Amino acid sequence: MIGAFALIFLVLAVITTIDAQEPVVWGTFTEEYCQETRKGCSSIGTWVSDDRTITETDIRLDGWVEPGGSVRAGYQPTGIISDTENDIVHAAGWMSVGPFVPWALALGMIIWGLMQAAAWGHLKIRGFAR
Length: 130
Hints:
By secondary structure, the protein is an alpha+beta fold. The protein has helices at 2-19, 83-86, 92-97, 101-119, and strands at 25-37, 40-49, 55-62, 70-75, 88-91.
């Protein structure tokens, strides 16, 4: 199971690395309402590119904004996991760290799996074997 999750995160890491090469269109997201989710609320609103050539309505923000407020956000219309297909824009902070998250999760799963294997006695590492 741990290996399956690590593999999934590795595949996502490769995809996000490939997608990171796709162009990002910058603009402003303005929240119109907050859609209730299991984790709280998801900002839904309108995103307009800086040059005003692209407008996306009823789009979700990956990030945070003050209620009814605006935030700088990036939009990647192309790629394997495109923002067009997912109806999403990303707050500026998330655009910079997003590609690294699946790599960190994959590495974490691999390390955790090795620690579990050592704890179960399947891998001999000093300090971890029973």
